[in-house]
Structure formats: C-alpha cells, structure tokens
Design goal:
Helix content: 40-55%
Shape: flat
CATH superfamily of the largest domain: P-loop containing nucleotide triphosphate hydrolases
Number of strands: 15
CATH architecture of the largest domain: 3-Layer(aba) Sandwich
Number of helices: 18
Oligomer: single chain
Strand order of the largest sheet: 10-11-12-8-13-14-15
Structural class: alpha/beta
Distance between the termini: 35 Å
CATH topology of the largest domain: Rossmann fold
Largest sheet: 7 strands, mixed
Length: 572
C-alpha cells in the first residue's frame, strides 16, 4: 500500500530507496554468486556438487522468474516515468519535498509489484504527463489493483470494477467510472420507481381495508389484506443526497480586454530569479483559460504575481471595471483558530446571518457544522469553505489555483456547473483533466523558454500536441515578445524563429532515435537474460561470465541513453 510516512535513514538516496524494492532479489543474487564460486571450486562431481547445482538451478529460476537481471533497468524506467532525473539519484531522501517523497514512495511500490497494489489518491502531486505515464503503467499491471481516487479520467482509464461506499453500504458496479455513473443513475431511478409503485399499492390496500374491515361480507378479505400488508417487505425509501451548490455572480461586467500581461515573468527567491522566459498575452471577457505546465515551472507563482501577492517583472494591466477573486490551493487565507461562520463574517462583515448561513449550507455546512474550527476541517471541507468565500465575491475575473484539489466528485461537478454558468473570465491552473476538458476554451502551455497559446478546448489541444505540427494556425508561439504590441516582425526575427523551429525538429528527431535505441536495448537485454538462464542450466560457467559481462555493458549503455534522453527532453 502507498503509505504517506515511512522511516528512512538520513543517508538514504533516491536510487537506494527505489532500488530497495528488490532487496530480496539482491539477497538471492548474492547467494547465486556464492554458489557460482563454490561450484567453480568444486574439484569433481559428487553429491556435494550435485547439491550445489540443484540449489543454483532453483535460485536461478526464482531470480529469472522475477526478472532479476533487469532490476536496475526497471528502477530507471519507473523513476524516469515519475519525473526523477539521473542527476537526482544521489539526492538524500530527507531533502526531498513532500510531493517528491510521495512520488518516490509510489515508485517503490510499483517496483515491488505486490499481489495487491493499494493506492490512495496516487495522482496527487503528479503533473499531467506523469499521470498519463502512471495510467499506462497501471493498465499493464499484471496483479490486482485497489485504488481510491477522485480523478475521473484516471478511473476511466485504469479501473474495471467500481465500489461505492454510501450511507454505510458498499455497492459493486462492473466497469470504470463512466459506466458506474450511468449504472448508478439507472439504479437510483429504479429504486425511486419501485418505492413509489409500492407506496401506491400500499395506499390502495390500506384504503380497501378501511372501507371493508367493518362489513361482515368483506371483513375476512380485509383482514387477509391486513396480514399480507404486515408481512410485506418494504422497499427502502431512497435517501435524498445533499449535494453542494455553488454560484458566482459578478456585480459588474468588465470591458472586453480583461487582463494584459506584457513582457511578463514571475520571479521567486532572494536574489530574485525568473521562472520562465518573458511573454505577452491578452485575456478577453468570457474566456476560460487553462494554464498548463510541468510541476515547478511557475504556474502558481504566475497566478500569485497577477493577484499582486507574488514577485514579477513586466506589466500586469487589468481592463475596465475588472474585479478579480483569487482561490489559492493552500487556502493560506483561512485562520485555523476561527470557526466556519466567523471566517465568512470576517471577509464579509456586512452580510446578514441568513445570507452567510445560506451560502454555507450550499457547500454542505449545516446546523452546528458552521461552528467547527477551521483547524479541525478536512481538506475537502477547507476547499468548500474557500469556495463559499469566493462565491460571495463580486469578482468578474476568477484566478483559480487547483480548485478541485481535495474535492470529492460531486463537489467537483457542482464547481464545474457554476463555472460554466459564470459570465465573467477565468484563468485557472488544474491537473484535473476532466475539469480541463469541461471548462477550458483556451490553453496556455508554459515552459522555461516559451508560452504556447492555443485557441481551443483541452481535447483539441492534446490532438494538436500529438500531431506535433509546427504549422497548426491556432497554436501561437508567444515566447519572449510574441503577441506584444511591439513584437518585431523583421527579417532577422523571422529567420531566428525559423532557426528555432528547425532546432526543435532536430531535437525531436534525436529524441525519436534515442527512444528507438532504448526500445532495442531493452529487447536485447531481455533476450540476453533468457540466454543467461539457459547457460546456468547447462552449467557453462565460462560462457556465463562472458555473457554476464556483456549484459552489464548493455545495462550501462541503456543507462547512458536514458540520461541523454532526459537531457534532450528538458530542452524541448
């Protein structure tokens, strides 16, 4: 099971921690090496040598069955998939961030390959590319998987059976999340229909009993019906679920031009350092703009700078009548000492208790729930409280940083519905692909060197990225001064851009070559491992040593190709 806290030595490194998944294999290999030496030193065949050979054969089969010869290659593959570069292999575990530690723990669990792999919200702390890699990995996982997740895309791609826990009951649904959602809706409709049909029948029978119980000619029939009614197994009345409800109602309409960033770059640290190359962009009224980019690129810092609470360079200009509301993923504006109702009153002191309680009720804080201390709330409750604060804002521009974090699926759907109805402008960061696909009308994809501005929804953006077409007219490079009113259009600038495109194509071609080399080397290593097992069965120790050296050499070549692949990937 993916655990949140484990004990580690101070000198534990990324590589050693991940590689410890193969501790039993390492012990087995050590025993094999000892047996090889003992066999080599045995002077003649006899009972002792036969026993050594049998032991060696048993251990070799066990080692080969668990792909022991490819342990290092597997470790590199999983670490790379979870975004650990070879330069980070010697990084001490203690110096990793919380997100990195969680990813490393996940890597180790994947490498252990238990009979039952249990994962609790495994997509937390993962960027979009890493989640896609994890999905592909789990889809090919040979053992059983039990996962808790609120990521609807992830559930659709990975799961084949869904269990729902609701009101103390667990119900099994065959299929992934989308199938479950459809079957659940159908099941609930059938429950309502069955309950209403039975209630109508009960009412009819009770009416018959009331009319006929006192009449001598019909009293026996009425008594019989009464007995039948007493024995009737009642259909349970479907429980009306309390669903969250959110609205965002701006008080004014902004101008057409809502937010301009000109030669803009977010900065962090002391001394300050730029997180990405400056770019220029204009957001217009009614757009729902998703900001994408790998973890650590500066998406949160960008939103903080736009909101005026982070460092930046360049121009941030709001349009006419623009009022913004800012949702932070950490909810640092919430005071843990205050109660839920005090929190809203501190932000909106002139609002009546009726308005405050109604708004809190919309996000499922009912009755005495409003007197809970913020410090005692769960992550989901804190997120719903932050949404309640934002929903009372008069903002016509919403800046949202991971608004679906900690929300259950029903709360996510309520938020999506509210944002789809919102008449203003939205700039948001999210790793929730379902949320992205539902909301985004425009994509800004941020890297260290450039900003890609895509006019379209998330799914069409992915399709364009897959095609890797430099000629797609809706994708506009906005690196440095692109989209700036002063953006140069000189021959030199056009030549520079053509050169950049040519270099990009060259890098992509090299990446493709490296990926082909990785695939070929991994195939050769697998063949060599199988051959090594055959040689061990034959007892050809000279050939085993030669073959083992060749295998180690190929593993080293594979590691070098992986390192170059990582370096080239960072350049794209």
């Amino acid at each position: 099971m993916l655990q949140r806290k484990e004990a580690h030595g101070d000198d534990e490194t990324v590589w050693r921690y991940a590689r410890s998944a193969f501790a039993e294999l390492d012990e087995l290999e050590t025993a094999m090496r000892a047996l090889e030496e003992a066999i080599a030193n045995a002077s003649q065949r006899g009972e002792t040598l036969d026993k050594l050979l049998r032991d060696y054969d048993t251990k070799t089969h066990a080692f080969e069955k668990r792909d022991g010869f490819s342990a290092d290659a597997k470790t590199r593959r999983v670490l790379h998939g979870l975004r650990f570069t070879s330069e980070q292999y010697e990084t001490p575990f203690a110096s990793l961030s919380g997100g990195q530690k969680t990813r490393l723990q996940l890597a180790r669990q994947l490498l252990i390959e238990p009979d039952l792999l249990m994962l609790d919200e495994p997509t937390n702390y993962l960027d979009l590319e890493t989640v896609a890699w994890l999905e592909d990995y789990l889809r090919s996982y040979r053992e059983s998987l039990l996962v808790i997740s609120h990521d609807r895309y992830f559930l659709d791609r990975v799961t084949t059976v869904t269990y729902e826990m609701d009101h103390g009951k667990t119900v099994r649904y065959p299929g992934n999340y989308s199938v479950y959602a459809a079957l659940k809706e159908e099941r609930e409709a059938q429950q309502v229909e069955a309950f209403e049909r039975q209630q109508a029948e009960i009412e009819r029978i009770e009416d018959f009993i009331a009319k006929n119980i006192v009449r001598a000619s019909t009293t026996k029939r009425a008594q019989s019906r009464r007995t039948w009614l007493a024995r009737l197994e009642r259909v349970e009345q479907p429980t009306a679920r309390k669903l969250p409800f959110v609205t965002f109602l701006p008080e004014t309409t902004s101008g057409v031009d809502v937010l301009e960033l000109r030669r803009f770059c977010a900065k962090v640290g002391t001394p300050e350092r730029a997180l990405f190359a400056p770019f220029s962009i204009m957001l217009r009224r009614g757009e729902r703009v998703a900001l994408l980019g790998k973890n650590g690129i500066g998406k949160t810092s960008l939103l903080r700078a736009v909101a005026g609470v982070g460092k930046s360079e360049g121009v941030v200009r709001f349009g006419t009548h623009v009022e913004f509301g800012y949702y932070t993923q950490e909810q640092e504006q919430l005071d843990p000492a205050l109660t839920v109702i005090e929190t809203l009153w501190r932000v909106y002191p002139t609002r009546s208790e009726t308005v405050i309680r109604t708004k809190l009720g919309h996000v499922l804080f009912h009755g005495d729930d409003v007197y809970k201390r913020v410090g005692d709330l769960s992550g989901g409750e804190r997120s719903r409280l932050a949404l309640a604060i934002l929903s009372l804002s008069p903002a016509n521009l919403l800046l949202l940083d991971e608004p679906t974090n900690h929300l259950d699926i029903e709360s996510k759907e309520a938020l999506e519905a509210a944002l789809l109805d919102f008449p203003g402008t939205i700039l948001f960061v999210s790793h929730d692909r379902y949320f992205l696909a539902t909301l985004a009308t425009r994509i800004l994809s941020l890297t260290e060197n450039r900003m890609l501005d895509y006019e379209g929804n998330y799914e069409s953006f992915l399709a364009a990225q897959t095609q890797q077409s430099d000629e797609t007219p809706t994708v506009k490079e906005t690196a440095r001064q692109a989209l700036s009113p002063e953006a140069p259009r000189t021959k030199d600038e056009r030549a520079r851009r053509q050169l950049e495109k040519a270099q990009d194509r060259k890098r992509l071609a090299r990446l493709t070559t490296l990926e082909q080399q990785i695939e070929q080397l991994e195939k050769e290593i697998k063949v060599d491992e199988a051959r090594l097992v055959e040689l061990s069965e034959q007892g050809d120790w000279v050939a085993i040593n030669e073959h083992n050296e060749q295998l180690q050499e190929k593993n080293e070549r594979l590691a070098n190709v992986y390192r170059e692949w990582e370096a080239r990937s960072e350049e794209i």
